[in-house]
């Protein structure tokens, strides 16, 4: 799996690309247990493993953490114990990790700002590049033949790895049963070795790995491939394995801008925004409309507008692409279905395809989660505007306390205020409106809800907000209040909540509170709240409880 996008520029403007490159790591379920403040502090993250059950992330203060099943010690924490709670990868903290690559073995490769390479995890074939085949439980510096070199990209297949230096040199190591190291033999390589045959005089600008194949992109837009070729994934016109780099001549005349490898298929994006595919196609991953393998590069999606990004990973058989207008397409093995032609999605990035439809749902490249400086989304801006005196044009006073709001927001969000601020109402021309029928916590929560769609109140105050929602015909707010009340019901307040539900005609809540009271009849009837029920409510409760068999011996 490649850790960098294989391209030199992005969309038409850098700002637009940065917006597209922001990802919500919560889309990957392994991060779902992390607190929001932890997720907000992540700057780089990746998900890997046979079931996408392992993850690494780097925080904004350069700390590295791992979580998951820890197969072959691939979390790098010094043991093979699985963990649902993040554990610190001490050896990498403070080293400025900039990107990661991860083989399905699994093994992991990290590169730092200084261009150093670190590796850990499964090492049965020398894929860690540390000169031996011992399992690596913690990250170890990979230095052989790389001293004085600055590595800027790494990529991993199932059990081999490639590294690219600033000089455009390529180094390879690991499993070599199909010639994927490019040395001309099939002997495994336990330390980095420079790939020279076929590309010795070429300046390489990007590297990528399939399951057991390798591919590089030169600065002139040419592709060279080697390794396993049983499905035609090298794109050289045959199915013969290649122990040294071979030029992909079927793309002659095209300048390749980016290339990615799937498990046994490949995709190339040209500088004209055209997509070419080749290799295995048993799941439709080539996007040709059928399931026939291809041994040469073939253009697909000829009826689609210009493409600006493509994605695939050696972990699965999914392909994805994005057009210059931001439309994301996917094809291949999607949730067990064979999708043979590019299918339009509602995603905003190619990475989201892998979180939702790939098996396993690994990240096809590390997720960059930094937000642009001083940038806020529209919902964030509206939320921040609540009770902001500087921008507000209206004040509410409740119990001698003031809340600053914006008439436009209230009119957009609430029918009650749309009517209130019409010209024939007195409130239309007022800058200050006094509220007397509701408490401050209740009305403040209501106004904040109009800005955030969220309610934060204890069950007792939620009853007052339920009254307001009933008066203002805010049906969604009414449902939210009922939910809060249900979650906060106790023996002590059940009778009071039941009475409130009856008063505000919340039938579903009434049924819930009644059933709770019946389930805890003895305790509820001895509470102060039950003794304060009015005569009608009390009689009605006893009658209904009797019909339910509450008083049978």
Mean pLDDT: 91
Describe the strand arrangement of the main beta sheet, using strand numbers.
4-3-2-1-25
Poorly predicted tracts of residues: 2-21
Radius of gyration: 31 Å
The number of helical segments is 14
Gap from first CA to last CA: 69 Å
Work out the number of β strands.
28
Task: Output the keywords.
553 residues; alpha+beta; 28 strands; 29% strand; elongated
Describe the structure.
With 553 residues, the chain is an alpha+beta fold. The strands form seven sheets. Strands 4-3-2-1-25 form a five-stranded antiparallel sheet. A four-stranded antiparallel sheet has the order 5-6-7-8, with no helix packed on it. Strands 9-10-11-12 form a four-stranded antiparallel sheet, with no helix packed on it. Helix 7 crosses helix 8 and helix 10 packs antiparallel against helix 11. The longest helix has 13 residues, at 440-452. It starts with 13 loop residues before the first helix and ends in a 6-residue tail after the last helix.
List the helices and strands and how they pair.
Elements: H1 14-20, H2 36-40, E1 42-48, E2 54-59, E3 64-68, E4 83-88, E5 97-103, E6 107-112, E7 117-121, E8 136-142, E9 151-156, E10 160-165, E11 170-174, E12 189-194, E13 204-209, E14 213-218, E15 223-227, E16 242-247, E17 256-261, E18 265-270, E19 275-279, E20 294-300, E21 307-311, E22 318-323, E23 328-334, E24 337-344, H3 350-357, E25 367-368, H4 378-385, E26 394-398, E27 401-405, H5 407-413, H6 415-420, E28 432-435, H7 440-452, H8 459-471, H9 475-487, H10 494-503, H11 507-519, H12 521-524, H13 528-531, H14 535-547
Parallel strand pairs: 26-28
Antiparallel strand pairs: 1-2, 1-25, 2-3, 3-4, 5-6, 6-7, 7-8, 9-10, 10-11, 11-12, 13-14, 14-15, 15-16, 17-18, 18-19, 19-20, 21-22, 22-23, 23-24, 26-27
């Amino acid at each position: 799996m490649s850790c960098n996008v294989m391209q030199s520029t992005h969309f038409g403007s850098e700002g637009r690309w940065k917006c597209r490159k922001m990802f919500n790591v919560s889309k990957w379920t392994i991060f779902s247990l992390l607190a929001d403040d932890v997720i907000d502090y992540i700057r780089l993250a990746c998900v890997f493993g046979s079931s996408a059950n392992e993850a690494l992330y780097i925080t904004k203060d350069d700390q590295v953490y791992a979580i998951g099943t820890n197969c072959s010690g691939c979390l790098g924490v010094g043991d093979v114990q699985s963990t649902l709670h993040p554990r610190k990868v001490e050896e990498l903290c403070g080293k400025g990790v900039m990107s990661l690559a991860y083989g399905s073995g699994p093994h992991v490769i990290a590169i730092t700002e200084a261009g150093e390479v670190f590796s850990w995890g499964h090492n049965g074939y020398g894929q860690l590049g540390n000169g031996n085949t011992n399992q690596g439980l913690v990250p170890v510096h990979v230095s052989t033949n790389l001293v004085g070199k600055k590595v800027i990209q790494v990529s991993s297949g199932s059990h081999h790895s490639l590294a690219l230096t600033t000089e455009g040199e390529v180094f390879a190591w690991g499993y070599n049963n199909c010639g994927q190291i490019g040395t001309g033999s099939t002997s495994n390589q336990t330390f980095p070795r420079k790939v020279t045959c076929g590309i010795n005089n070429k300046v390489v600008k990007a590297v990528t790995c399939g399951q057991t194949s390798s591919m590089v992109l030169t600065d002139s837009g040419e592709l060279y491939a080697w390794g396993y070729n049983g499905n035609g994934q090298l794109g050289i016109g045959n199915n013969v394995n290649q122990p040294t780099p071979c030029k992909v001549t079927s793309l002659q005349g095209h300048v390749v801008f980016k290339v990615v490898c799937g498990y046994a298929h490949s995709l190339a994006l040209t500088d004209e925004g055209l997509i070419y595919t080749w290799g295995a196609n048993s799941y439709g991953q080539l996007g040709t409309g059928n399931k026939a393998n291809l041994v040469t590069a073939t253009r697909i999606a000829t009826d689609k507008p210009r493409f600006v990004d493509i994605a695939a990973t050696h972990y699965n058989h999914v392909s994805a692409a994005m057009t210059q207008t931001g439309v994301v397409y996917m094809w291949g093995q999607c949730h067990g279905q064979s999708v043979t032609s590019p299918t339009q999605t509602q995603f905003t990035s190619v990475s989201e395809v892998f979180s939702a439809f790939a098996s396993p749902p690994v990240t096809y490249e590390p997720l960059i989660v930094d937000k642009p400086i001083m940038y806020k989304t529209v919902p964030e801006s509206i939320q921040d505007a609540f009770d902001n005196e500087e921008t507000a044009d209206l004040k509410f006073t409740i119990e001698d306390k003031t809340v600053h709001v914006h008439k436009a927001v209230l009119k957009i969000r609430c029918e009650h205020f749309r009517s209130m601020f019409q010209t024939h109402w007195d409130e239309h021309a007022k800058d200050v409106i006094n509220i007397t029928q509701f408490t401050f916590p209740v009305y403040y929560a209501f106004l904040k809800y109009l800005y955030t769609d969220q309610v934060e109140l204890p069950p007792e105050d939620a009853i007052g907000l339920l009254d307001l929602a009933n008066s203002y015909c805010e049906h969604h707010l009414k449902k939210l209040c009922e939910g809060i009340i249900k979650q906060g019901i106790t023996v002590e307040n059940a009778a009071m909540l039941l009475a409130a539900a009856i008063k505000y005609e919340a039938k579903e809540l009434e049924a819930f509170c009644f059933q709770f009271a019946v389930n805890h009849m003895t305790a509820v009837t001895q509470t102060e709240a039950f003794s304060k029920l009015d005569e009608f409510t009390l009689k009605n409760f006893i009658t209904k409880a009797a019909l339910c068999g509450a008083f049978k011996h």
